[in-house]
Amino acid sequence: MRLVDVIRGExxxxxxxxxxxxxxxxxxxxxxxxxxxxxxxxxxxxxxLDFLLAGSRLRVAVELDGFAYHSSxxxxxxxxxxxxxxxxxxxxxxxxxxxxxxxxxxxxVAQLQTVLRSDPALASYLxxxxxxxxxDDMMPNPLGLITAPRRPSAAPADYxxxxxxxxxxxxxxxxxxxxxxxxxxxxxxxxxxxxxxxxVGAGKTALGVAAALAFTRRRVLIVxxxxxxxxxxxxxxxxxxxxxxxxxxxxxxxxxxxxxxRTVVLDSDDEPIRAVSRDTLLAAxxxxxxxxxxxxxxxxxxxxxxxxxxxxxxxxxxxxxAAADSYQRLFAHFSLARRLLMSACFSRADGKRIEADxxxxxxxxxxxxxxxxxxxxxxxxxxxxxxxEYELVWPDGTREQIVGKDALLEVMQDERKLARxxxxxxxxxxxxxxxVRRSLDHQATALSxxxxxxxxxxxxxxxxxxxxxxxxxxxxxxxxxxxxxxDSAIAATRARFEAESGNLQAIVQLRMLGQxxxxxxxxxxxxxxxxxxxxxxYQFLGRGIRVIxxxxxxxxxxxxxxxxxxxxxxxxxxxxxxxxxxxxMDPHPTDADDFGDAPTPDASVARTGxxxxxxxxxxxxxxxxxxxxxxxxxxxxxxxxxxEEREMHAFAQRYAVYVASTPNPRPFEDxxxxxxxxxx
Length: 680
What we know:
Elements: H1 3-6, H2 12-25, E1 34-42, E2 45-54, E3 59-65, H3 73-88, E4 92-97, H4 98-103, H5 105-116, H6 120-123, H7 159-166, H8 174-188, E5 193-198, H9 204-215, E6 220-224, H10 227-236, E7 263-265, H11 278-282, E8 286-290, H12 302-305, E9 313-316, H13 325-333, E10 338-343, E11 357-362, H14 364-369, E12 375-383, E13 389-393, E14 399-403, H15 405-411, H16 415-418, E15 421-423, H17 427-447, E16 453-457, H18 461-473, E17 478-481, H19 487-498, E18 506-509, E19 522-527, H20 534-542, E20 561-567, H21 573-581, E21 605-607, E22 613-615, E23 626-632, H22 636-660, H23 668-679
Parallel strand pairs: 3-4, 5-10, 5-11, 6-8, 6-9, 7-8, 9-10, 12-20, 16-18, 16-19, 17-18, 19-20
Antiparallel strand pairs: 1-2, 2-3, 12-23, 13-14, 13-15, 21-22
Helix pairs in contact: 2-5, 8-9
C-alpha cells in the first residue's frame, strides 16, 4: 500500500503535500489516522481542514496555502481568525505553502515529523532518516522561465502572454513535456530552426499545439502536407470538438482559465485562399493550412497576403517534405520566425537536404516501451525462387515482363505503366494471404471486442484489384481504394473499413491512406510492393503502429502487436533494419505472442452482395515452396532494457537534485528503492 494511492486530495496542492511531505515523513499505515476535508464548527463559524491527523493525544490540522487564494488583505485576516479558533479547540495547526513544499521540501518533512513525534500513536509511523526527493511536478508549468520571441518593451500583453501564465503541461505525455522543455532551452538561447524527431504514435499533434501556445507572441502558422493532417490539427484546436487538445486531454485541460485561440483553417480544396482577406488572417491567433495554400508570395496565396512580421512561429508537421520549394519560400518569407519541424523520419527519396537542429529525439523503441506504440512483429515469407516476375498488359494486348525489384522500382516512376502492373504468378500472393489470414485470427482473439483490420499497399490499380480478389478468396472481406474512384465511393469504402460496424476487414490502397491517417485497429500491414524510400516505407508501417485505446484492452496494452507481413523478394529487409537501429532519421544540422503457421483449413465460402467473401475458402491454393520467418522488430527483452535505461537516467537526474539539496544524502540505490516504493 502507498499513501499516494489511498489518500487523495481535492486540489493539486493537497496531492503534492501527500506525495512529497507526508509520504516522505511517515509509512503508509498512518493513512488510518488521516482525514481529508474534516469539518470543524466554532460558534457560528464552520471550517474544513485540508487534512486532520488524529493521534492518541494530538489533533494536527494541516492547512495548505496557495498564494493565489491567500494573498489578499481579507484572506490575511481570515486565516489568522481561523487559526486562533482552531488553537482554541486544542488543534495543533501546521501551515504549508506551495512555495515551501516545492522549494524547501526537507524542512517541511522535518517540521511535520517534529510535531507528530510528540504523539505515541502517530510517532510509530515515522520514517527514520527519510529520503526527501525534490518535487518534479510542483510547478503547473514546468517550463518555468519560458520566453516568448523578442518584443518591444512597450508592447501590451496579448493572448499568448496570458496562455504562457496558465499553460499546464501535466496533461501532456512525458515525451511531449520533455520535447517542450528542450524547445524552450533551444529558443531561449536564440535558436530559430528546431526539429523534433518523434516516432509514429508519440503525439506530434498535441506537441505542435502546445508549442504553438507556448512559443508564439503574435501569430502562429501550422503547415501540414495535406487535408488529413490539416483536419487533425483543426480538430485539436476546435473547442467544440470532442477530443480537442485544448481542453479534453485525458489528464485535464492544457490551458485552464483561458479562452481557445482564434483559429482560421484554410484548405485550397475547400475554400480558395484568394477568398480569404488579410484582415481575417490578422484577426487569427492560429492559422492552419496545407502547403498547397502557400502560393509564391506574388498574389493569390497565403504568402501574398501576409507580411514577414505577421508570423513569428511556424510549426511544420510531417516535415520530411520541408525541402520542397513551397516550404523554402515559406521559410524565406518569414525569415525571422521560429520554426518547429516535426517528423518521424527526415530521409527523402530524392536526397534533398532538410536543414534543422535536432533538439529532441523519441525513438520507436521508446514509444513501445512507454505504451504509445504496438510491438512490431515481422512475418517474412522467403520464397525459394530467384526473382519475382510482374507483367504489364497494354490496351492492345501487348505484354511486357518485369523481373526483379530494381526493374519494378523503375516502372513505378511511370504512372501510365503503374496502373497496369499485375503479378505474373499469384502463388506468392496466396502464400502471403495465408499468413495475413492467420494474423487477423490471432489479432481478433487478442484485441476482442475491437475488430482488427489489415492494410495492403499495392503497385497499381490492376495489382490492387488482384490482391483484393485473392484476399476475398481467403475469407478476408477486402476492397480497393485509389484516386480514380469518385469522392462518394472513397467515402463509402472508408466508412465500411473504419467503422466498427463496417463489413470490410481489409483495404488495398494506392498512396491514399498515408501520412497522418490514424486508425489504431489496423493491426496487420502488408506491403505488397517495394519501397525505394525508407521514409515512405516507415510512413506506411506507421498507419498501424498506434496503440488501441479501449477500456477492454486497458490491461492488455503490453500484448498489442502490429504484424508486418511481407514477401522476401520485395527487398524490404534493409528498410526494416534501418527502422530497427533508427540511424537514418535526422535532418542536416544548420550549423554543420507466438502462433503456428499450419495451413489454413478449408471451409465453405459465403458471399455477400458486395462480392466480399466471409469465412474460409473451399478452393485449393497452390503453395509456393518457401519458409516463413518471424521476429519482433524490437524484442521484448530489448524493449524492457530500453525502458530500464530511460528510467535510470530519470532517477539520476532527480538524485542529482536531491544530493545538491541534502547535507547527508543516502546512496543512489537507496534513493531509487524509496522513490519506486513510494511513488511507483
